Amino acid sequence: MRYMQIGKSDINASVVSLGSFGIGGGATWSDTTIDIQGTSKLLDAALENGVNMIDAAPVYGIGAGEILLGEALKGKRDKFILQTKCGLNWRGESEVLEYVRDGKNVCRDLSAKAIRKDLEDCLSRLQTDYIDIFITHRQSDIVSVEETMGELLKMVTEGKIRAVGISNATPDRLKDYTKIGHVDMVQEKFSLLSRQNEKEYIPVCEEIGTTFQVFSSLEAGSLTGPQVIGNTYPAGDFRGYFKWFKEEMRPYMEAFYNQLSPLCDKYDCSYANLVQAWTLHQSPVINLLTGIRRIESLKDSIKAVDISLDDADVAKIQAEADKLLAL
Fold first, then answer.
1. CB under 8 Å to 87, separation ≥6 — which residues?
2. Which of 11, 21, 74, 77 supports an S-S bond with 6, CB 3.0-4.6 Å?
3. CATH number of the domain encompassing residue 79
């Protein structure tokens, strides 16, 4: 495993981070059966394989994900870099409805009062007295960046959090935050098939010293190999929104994987490794956040860190993905 400094902070984290979206279960991950014992074993395997960063959020399972992690982290909290989020809650105190999930009205609120309560709730569920990186989950068009960032910086001064992150933002929004204080991490969607952030956002992060943490690099699992083509999921399941699983995409996805197969042989790796290695190749500021529920998936994901792709192969992988994006 390789490690990297997160932004300009004193946090040294594994290049691969463990995402807990799926651990929370609920309607968004309908096949999740992981429990406290299973989560604890997963965290032990993470440490054994050099992964020391965990990503969480209050809305993952509507609190269930953080509660599971809080129990599983007992006795090992100090061994992990723990990040979670603020700005989305279901307390009934906010008026901006973001979505309805598992019977709860989830609202967006980045006011100082709301994110302070978010922090208290997160600390309680995670059974800890500090968060390493606290991330604004989505951005507000109502509350000023000055109010939000001002409160986050107070939390840093108080020792409640160690660093500030933002998610689902833009380069301009990042610049707005940095006028007030440094943002050590942005967390954004980026993949071989979702490259909208590569030309502007990543270069901005490189320039100002902010880590660009990638989520959904495997497009919810649809880039893990031909075995998932045509997979179907119940209504509301997160994976059902990704078109790459659809049956009508079968011939195109099969052609894509056929072209990548020789490269998997060349690098002695899985399709997922190849895609993740391409992702890491894009910039030294990238941290690879991967949703992991199974120990075997964890062990496979970390192999991508050791793959050094030839420039010609990077171009080949991207060219094949371009054919899918052109559909």
1. 108, 109, 110, 114, 115, 118, 136, 137, 138, 139, 140
2. 11
3. 3.20.20.100
Residue 248 inside a domain? The answer is yes
Give the tens place of pLDDT for each residue, 129-142.
999 999 999 999 99
Place of tokens 């429990």: 35
Domain limits for position 303: 3-320
pLDDT at 236: 75
Question: Closest by alpha carbon to 115, among 155, 146, 171?
Answer: 155
State yes or no: is 60 an active-site residue. Answer: yes
Would residue 326 count as lying in a domain?
no
| Catalytic residue from among 60, 177, 201, 267 | 60
- pLDDT tens string 145-160: 999 999 999 999 999 9
Q: What is the pTM of this model?
A: 0.95
327 in a structural domain: no
Edge-to-edge strand list for the sheet holding 88-89: 88-89, 104-108, 97-101
